[in-house]
Specification:
Elements lengths: L1 H29 L3 H23 L3 H27 L7 H24 L24 H35 L5 H27 L2 H25 L8 H13 L4 E5 L4 E4 L1 H6 L10 H5 L3 H6 L3 E5 L2 E13 L5 E10 L1 H37 L5 H29 L9 E2 H13 L6 E5 L5 E2 L3 H17 L7 E8 L3 E8 L6 H9 L12 H11 L3 E6 L5 E8 L4
Parallel strand pairs: 7-9
Antiparallel strand pairs: 1-2, 1-5, 3-4, 4-5, 6-8, 9-10, 10-12, 11-12
Helix pairs in contact: 1-2, 1-7, 2-3, 2-7, 3-4, 3-5, 3-6, 4-5, 5-6, 6-7, 12-13, 12-17, 13-17, 14-15, 15-17
Length: 566
Amino acid sequence: MAIELLTVARVLAGASGVALLVAAAWTRSAWRAPSARSFSVLIGLLGTSALALAAVAPNRPAYSVVWLLTLLAIPVAFGAFALDYYGLDLVTTPWRLAAFALPAVAAGGSGVAYHLLRPPSMGTGMGGGTGMMGPAPPGLSPLALDLLVAVREVGLYYASGVIFVAVALVVGTVVQYDHLGPGVVVTLSFLGVWQWGGYLLMPEVMAATDYATALALIGGCYAVSVVAVGTVAGVGGLFETLPAAGTVGSRTALDSLDDPMLTVDDSGTVLCANEAACRTFDPSRAVGSPLERVVGVDIGTLRERDRLSLETTEGSRWFQPGLSAVAGRGDIRLGTVIVLRDVTRRRTREQRLQVLSRVLRHNLRNDMNVIRGNAELITDGAGIDPSTGAEQIRRTADELVELGERAREVERMMSFEEHPEPAVDVAATVETAVSAVGERYPAVEVTTAVPADSTLPVDGRVLRVVLENVIENACQHNDADEPIVVVSADRSEDRFRLAVSDNGPGIPEMERSVIAAGTEDPLEHSTGLGLWAVEWGVTRLGGELSFADNEPRGAVVRIDLPTGEP
């Protein structure tokens, strides 16, 4: 009778194993989701263990090895499936998966080694729980036995912990998504848990009946596994909707945002940062650091300012901060979500429109009035020397032409397609700008003091336009008996400073304050486009523009540019 029952158990296990392997192959080919692949591995391992059981059932020591490996492999596969199904990318790379499975693999290796060394006279080693495996086999020291046992026990405890976590993830997924019924929880949990139930109950079953009956029950569990797989993967539509999309989707949405987004707690510590934030600011400081260390200002400053300039990995940029409170249960404030929208281009465009409006309204109108007035005086012959009036008309017209050329140059500079150059030769760019301006102002002595090996990761076309405007401004307005302009450079760890110094009358305070404020009004405005062209070009390069007085006379225009170094 026992032999017949053992045969039934082997046939049942073998048939179930074949059915599970077929289901694994079908799942693998029918669904592309990562969780479907890990589910196919899970049921493939179940099928393999069922076939192994059918093959070695009469040999109780060999069966003990198969059963140990099953107890270690199924929890790891079930845990990987639960993580994929929920959408946690903890085992998405081969190295992570290897680390996840390592305790179970080590425990399996120690168990196999013990059973290979164990002579048949020492028994089968079967039993529930995680107790000792018996006395040391001949030739194996007690220390080596203790090591094998310790590795085995750690692996079994690890596998049991993985089972609990996996079941919790499955339960959490079903609770979170209404379309998954409680039957899915029971069915999926059965696939991953019943081996442990059998492991714990095996001694009691064998004590009450016999070995063949215990194996028949295990074979029946494999048959129920076939039904469970068909229920959840077929009828239940386990992979027709993927809960991982809800978990991964929100994370993907945050990382797909072009705007930096950070989450901070009430103490101002950054808890989370999307990919844009890590790209924009120093990624080594993004998470776990105070907000002020990451972006340069505290949360109070972000709340107070509509716009502000922040240092980024690409230099200075203008941002518009948006803050939203994060509240938990009972509306308890937990932290703040900060979104920093880069408005550098928008700010520059607003400035250009404002300055162009001033040029049309003020400069163009005034100059045309001068031309018209002198033309009328010449026509009427009202006491004016025609040559003097004509010269005034010509000079004013030249100024209008120059203003138009400057406006066209600014438009061309701002319309350059962005294509970051790996390294711009700053010294060569300075020499090109000096040569272009020097031809128009031969009376001005222009010297350079820029290291020959100076390079920067900036747009060389924009840098050349900026330098030409600064140098030309210094030459054009220099009224010294011996006009001198000096272009120098100084490099530090995080910035490269270009300075253009002259011995002219200096830059009027109103011109400086308008550029520093970033806006014009009817009472305070610049007289042309030159300094605005420099400001817009430096902003596009990710730098900062500042002014200082030269000693004993003149002005210093400073251009601080990013070096591209962290």
